[in-house]
Amino acid sequence: MTAMMITTLKRTNLRQGALNKRPIWNIIPCVLIRRLRQPNTYHVRLDEQHKMNQYKKKLKGQQGALSKTISSSESKYERSLIRKMASDKEIVQYLKESSSQDTSLYAAAIKRCSELKCPNSIIQIIEIVQSEHIHPDIIFYNMTLNYLGMWDKFNLQKYYFQQWFGKQQNQINHQLLVPNIITFNTMIKGCTKRGDFKQALYYLHLMIDKYNINPNLITCNSLLSVCANAHDIQSAELIWNKMIHDFNIDIDIISINSMLNVYAKCGETNKMMEILNYSQRPEKFISINEITCTTIMSGFLKANKVKELKLHSFIKLLETRYFKQKSNFVGFYLRFHPCNMFYVALFDDISKTRIEEKI
């Protein structure tokens, strides 16, 4: 499985001279460029046909401008009604009686049902959209997949993704909808919550190889979380190196915490501290937070290296940069650690040592 990830990620990394510095989604083969530069009658006809199609679209847009304005105001009113409804049954009944083709109305209904903690009604809304032969946009699909994931409806999330994007070959061109980076991030996030590394790798492979979409920061952070749950250091390190060197991604504290979590769950304290040191570089300083501290402490506990932690420079970092008062330090561990009283005693011992050193 790791070999498959390596093969997939390598396809996003073209290292040929000057091409190495260019974004991979902007690279066009030189042969294709030369062919495009050779004018012929066929290309001229295509150009004329394209201009005519654009002109027809413009006329159609002008003719429908008035009706669009009217329907937009009606849809806005209907969405406001949906937001005020107090039950999911009321929402579903309203949609069944409505003749609206505006997908934003159904998206608002899904959001409201989620707010009412009625995730099962989301399925009914999808069925209404399908039965009325409404053609949703990518925003509707992404929102639906997101709320299904929020309510741990992962099997349904996977099913609808396959239904909406897995049979594109049979769809008519004007109905073709392509998943975007938000779609894939939503699906990979769902894999993170259920620890399905194999399925996350499938979506990564699909977005890079089929749709030529480069992973962004959210994608990589989610993948690191999947690796942490799967205790897969090799794949996590591959993703981390790609984030730093190839994907042109600006590492943030979430990325740092995600990679720390990988090493913490595997008990790799030395590598964990290397990531912490990476975040504290003067040229690119990233401020740590409570999650950082929790993750590092749990990593030392996982590796049964509490004595090493006592002497580690990380404690000094906590004292000087994060917890300037003992009460804050104690309160932090009382909230986050089952062995919290041990850490309070540890802090007392460390503080005493610091005082003795100053004397």
UniProtKB/TrEMBL annotation:
Any one Pfam family match given in the protein's UniProt record, by short name: PPR
BP terms from Gene Ontology: mitochondrion organization; RNA processing
Cross-referenced InterPro entries: Mito_RNA_Proc_CCM1 (IPR051114), PPR_rpt (IPR002885), TPR-like_helical_dom_sf (IPR011990)
PPR repeats: 180-210
Domain of life, per lineage: Eukaryota
Organism: Reticulomyxa filosa
Stated name of the protein: Pentatricopeptide repeat-containing protein
GO molecular function, one term: mRNA binding
GO annotations of cellular component type: mitochondrion
